[in-house]
Design goal:
Helices cover about 40% and strands about 15% of the residues. The protein contains 15 helices and 14 strands. It has helices at about 30-40, 85-90, 100-115, 130-140, 155-160, 165-175, 185-190, 235-250, 265-275, 290-295, 320-325, 335-340, 355-370, 370-385, 390-405; strands at about 15, 45-50, 60, 65-70, 120-125, 150, 180, 200, 225, 255-260, 280-285, 300-305, 330-335, 350. Strand 3 (about 60) and strand 4 (about 65-70) form a beta hairpin.
């Protein structure tokens, strides 16, 4: 069904496929797919298909979005998605690989049934694998001409290695009318799979107008913050190691670590081993609505991301944009996804990845010069506000989707 087939009084219908989506209204899962969908509801009729999990509904309307959740196993065993994502859950517990065939089959089955029942103008699949693959297979089975927009967020492009998975990625990208990625570096990687791919760089957005904004009180002196999952590619151990040197020059320094993940126990043990317990607080997962207050109180936010051993890395530093929106001075590593956002010594500071010494020097410098922290924070907010506010990002996606209807 094309846009021209739609009545002037009817919104075009979009089907969104995702494996990361809020399970309930106050869920702590990353909300970026939800935030995009609810803004697209202004112009489109949006339906989402996501995995089911314990204690969530199989069908509901969330902020104008019709949400279906497919079951792929008995409820207590539906642990492949959420709580860090599919890749991290598989790394943490390889036995969950046995859930993958069931996940793929039941997602495919539910999608086929949904496509038979409803006439959609476009499918938007978040992640090349598995959602993009499932969309291509379902369209092929039903011989549907619905345009497919596929979005890669990084892990599916970088971490899924091997000839078979590489061929699958090439296949899905070729079958997608358009592909969006969230950084320049990802576009270069995606083109290796299919040089003729129609790729646009559109990152996920941040609410920089109402939510992630500067605070009304001064930032706390000697305060450091990390926000994100506690996984290898985030490089948190290098931040903790650097802190053991920072405290010798700034004995009042305090680091708060917001997030959870499979490496938490190892990181807690490292803090104890380095006698840093008085200086480090593990906050656990923080709801998205409470993050602005954390940023607003923090003088410096550190993102020590690295390329993990399996090749996984950041696709886009969304939390980096959040911190800059709250006028924090930020320190990030020299990964391409970070350098897309931070201009060194102008909107933030860049250090070498896996280098605790670099981190130590930069943290000490900024803690000793609070006026530079303030200047970086203001410049950083001005920069991200012009590029990454959700209204700007949603408008770009809406325009792209309308092009695909014609």
């Amino acid at each position: 069904m094309r846009a021209s087939d739609v009545s002037a009084h009817t919104k075009p219908k979009i089907l969104v496929l995702a494996s990361t989506f809020p399970r309930w209204s106050d869920d702590k899962e990353p909300p970026f797919v939800f935030e995009l969908c609810r803004r697209l509801c202004k112009e489109f009729d949006v339906t989402v298909l996501a995995p089911h999990a314990a204690d969530c509904k199989t069908r509901e309307v969330m902020d104008g979005i019709l949400v279906y959740r497919f079951r792929y196993c008995c409820i207590n065993w539906q642990t492949l998605a959420y709580k860090g994502g599919i890749l991290e859950n598989l790394k943490r517990n390889p036995i969950k690989f046995f859930l993958v065939p069931f996940f793929l089959f039941f997602q495919f089955l539910f999608l086929v049934q949904l496509l038979k029942k409803e006439n959609f103008n476009l499918i938007h699949a978040h992640w090349i694998i598995p959602q993009g693959l499932i969309a291509v297979l379902a369209k092929s089975l039903l011989r549907l001409k619905i345009p497919l927009l596929c979005t890669s967020h990084g892990g599916d492009l970088y971490a899924l290695k091997g000839k078979i998975l590489g061929n699958i990625k090439s296949f899905v990208i070729k079958q997608s009318e358009k592909l969006t990625v969230v950084s320049n570096a990802m576009k270069e990687s995606a083109l290796l799979y299919y040089k003729k791919a129609d790729i646009q760089i559109i990152p996920m957005g941040v609410d920089l107008s109402n939510q992630f904004i500067p605070g009304s009180v001064p930032k706390k002196e000697n305060s450091l913050l990390y926000v994100g999952r506690l996984v290898e590619k985030k490089g948190i151990r290098y931040l903790i190691e650097s802190l053991s040197e920072v405290v010798t020059k700034h004995p009042g320094v305090q680091l708060q670590i917001a997030g959870s993940g499979p490496n938490e126990d190892k990181l807690v043990a490292l803090v104890h081993h380095l006698n840093l317990s008085p200086h480090v607080t593990f906050l656990g997962p923080i709801h998205n609505n409470k993050l602005p207050a954390l940023y607003q109180k923090s003088q410096i936010v550190v993102f020590p991301s690295i390329v993990a051993r399996d090749g996984d890395r950041e696709g886009f530093g969304l939390v980096l944009v959040e911190a800059l929106g709250c006028e924090c001075a930020v320190i990030a590593t020299d990964l391409a996804a970070m350098e897309d956002i931070v201009e060194n010594d102008k909107t933030g500071c860049i250090v070498r990845q896996k280098n605790s010494k670099d981190l130590t020097q930069k943290i000490n410098y900024l803690l000793s010069h609070p006026e530079i922290c303030t200047a970086l924070g203001k410049a950083g907010r001005k920069y991200v506000q012009a590029k990454y506010d959700w209204e700007i990002i949603a408008s770009r996606y809406a325009s792209l989707m309308k092009e695909m209807f014609i």
